[in-house]
Amino acid sequence: MTGRAAVIAGIGSWVPPRVVTNEDLSRQFDTDDEWIRTRTGIATRHFVEPGAATSDLAVEAGSRALKSAGGQPPGALVLATTTPDRPCPGTAPEVATRLGLDHIAAFDVSAVCTGFLYGLATGAGLIASGQTDRVLVIAAEAFSTILSPTDRTTSVIFGDGAGAVVLRAGDPDEPGALKAVDLGSDGSGVDLITVRAGGSRQRSTGLPPAVEDTYFTMDGHPVFMQAVLRMAASSRTVLQRVGWGVGDVDRLVGHQANLRILHAVADQLKLPREKAVVNLDRVANTAGASIPLALADAAADGFLRPGQRVLMTAFGGGLTWGSAAVEWPALDLV
Ligand code: UT7
């Protein structure tokens, strides 16, 4: 990227305290720890308590990211979420107010599991255009609230959580600068990952929704194939844009959809699997929040270190996908 760069200046994350194990789910669904571990790599996930909402997670992650970045107030807040507190209005203004950031620009971005990368690109655009020098980008999901109590497959995959970064205006060559971003979509796959009811298409019928249509559905097989192909292709695009070879990548931070998907993406790129950041065993697939949560966890446990070259890539409903490259900066972790 040229001109004013967007530089990662702080990071924060949060998962709700309630841990749900595979054994817990096997009491509710016809499933077991063996199937979930071998098919997905997931052992535990976190779910919000009854009455909690996405904004609660966003505020926790956002406040930590702001502290990590030194506390200066941002001029804009971008919130990526699939599970807004309400269909209307967006959740971002309430999050901004609860963070004490009254009257800043605040809006939601809807790109499901690619939400963080779309949010990151949006935040970088606000900086590049001179709209503001500092943006808080949060991705937060209370995904458990849209899981069907009768769908064992989706119910064992997803978890709740939030991650956030602060972007500040800076130099394209400094550590933390977003070096390249690739985003894409394919609306012909709209039905592969969806909540059918609750939007204008269903509401305009004037009929109450079928209960099952109010929950999240996913056609796992085609999504699996598309996820691997799109993340690998988008990753290659970003590597080309930034001028890195595959061997230059120190850490692959892929959307934590499924361990088999992460490994397949690494294999397609001919990147050693050991370079992939993995935290889905503990937090499962947290949709849009999964990349910033993985970044924060890996930075906290020392797997991700300053100076390492990081390739982020994600795929999700829409269909949407994206990738980004950054040299990891030295950050205060809170
Ligand atoms: O985050 C957005 C992007 N999302 C993704 O990228 C997810 C992509 N998809 C996947 O990760 C996988 O397709 C799943 C994890 C969703 C499913 O894994 P799979 O290996 O594709 O399983 P499957 O759908 O082929 O099902 C295999 C078997 C079936 O039984 P039969 O027909 O072979 O008798 C399912 O009914 O596993 C059964 N099954 C389960 N068994 C125990 C499905 N879910 C479960 C379960 N426990 N929870």
Written description of the protein model:
By secondary structure, the chain is α/β, with parallel strands linked by helices. It folds into 2 domains: 5-170, 3-Layer(aba) Sandwich (Peroxisomal Thiolase, Chain A, domain 1); 179-327, Thiolase/Chalcone synthase (Peroxisomal Thiolase, Chain A, domain 1, 3-Layer(aba) Sandwich), CATH 3.40.47. Helices cover 33% and strands 23% of the residues. It has 11 helices and 13 strands. It has helices at 22-28, 33-40, 54-68, 92-98, 115-128, 152-157, 200-203, 220-242, 259-269, 280-283, 290-301, and strands at residues 5-14, 19-21, 44-46, 76-80, 105-109, 134-141, 161-170, 178-185, 193-195, 216-218, 251-254, 309-316, 320-327. Strand 12 and strand 13 form a beta hairpin. Helix 3 packs across helix 4. Oxa(dethia)-CoA binds at residues 31, 35, 39-40, 113, 152-153, 156-157, 220-221, 223-224, 227, 257-258, 261, 285, 287, 315-316.
Features:
334 residues; alpha/beta; Peroxisomal Thiolase, Chain A, domain 1; five-stranded mixed beta sheet; four-stranded mixed beta sheet; 11 helices; 33% helix; binds oxa(dethia)-CoA
How is this structure best summarized?
The chain is an alpha/beta fold. The chain has helices at 22-28, 33-40, 54-68, 92-98, 115-128, 152-157, 200-203, 220-242, 259-269, 280-283, 290-301, and strands at 5-14, 19-21, 44-46, 76-80, 105-109, 134-141, 161-170, 178-185, 193-195, 216-218, 251-254, 309-316, 320-327.
CATH class of the largest domain: Alpha Beta
* Helix segment tally: 11
β-strand amount: 15-25%
Shape: globular
How far apart the termini lie comes to 29 Å
Unique ligands: oxa(dethia)-CoA
Mean pLDDT: 97
What order do the SSEs take from the amino end to the carboxyl end, as H and E? EEHHEHEHEHEHEEEHEHEHHHEE
Largest sheet: 5 strands, mixed
β-strand number: 13
The CATH superfamily of the largest domain is Thiolase/Chalcone synthase
